[in-house]
């Protein structure tokens, strides 16, 4: 299969999961359009320095957090918007709440504000692992693969790196 996408995922997916995934990815794509472009050289160098390999052969990265600015206000507005949609479409509410409970259980999200109902206080959750949609994810994934090629296959790493760096 020929594609211009950097990553392709295959496998069976439930319709409800696919719908939620589509909504999230569409929002991320729209957000990326606003911030399109290559990561600046300065940021790239900072990310390169931040990449470490821990003793358990796990890649650890000091995440380059940006200042929040007015994004919390935007997130609050979006949360209220989606809560209004939940009152209009209870089935969407059920599916989305199930998704969020599972997502929160995984404990690997960016900064998210969430609550189970409009009558409970809003909670602020923070990133513990790199999540989809964060700006440096593709760069960090590439760097991890390149490092693995060098580390695990020193003799074949030239060919692997040639493929990875295309």
Sheet with most strands: 2 strands, antiparallel
In terms of DSSP E residues, the strand content is 5-15%
Radius of gyration: 19 Å
Shape: elongated
Write down how many β-strands occur, each being a DSSP E stretch of 2 or more residues.
Answer: 4
**What's the rounded overall pLDDT mean?**
69
- End-to-end Cα distance, whole Å, is 17 Å
Secondary structural class: mainly alpha
**Order of strands, widest sheet:** 1-2
Count the helices. How many?
6
Q: What's the helix-strand series?
A: HHEEHHEEHH
Low-confidence stretches: none
- Classify the helix fraction into a percent range: 40-55%
GO cellular component, one term: mitochondrion
Pfam families: PET117
Family: Belongs to the PET117 family.
Subcellular location: Mitochondrion
Please give a structural write-up:
The protein contains 6 helices and 4 strands. The chain has 166 residues and is mainly alpha-helical. The strands form 2 sheets. Strands 1-2 form a two-stranded antiparallel ribbon. The chain has a two-stranded antiparallel sheet with strand order 3-4. β3 and β4 (123-125) form a beta hairpin. The radius of gyration is 19 Å and the shape is elongated.
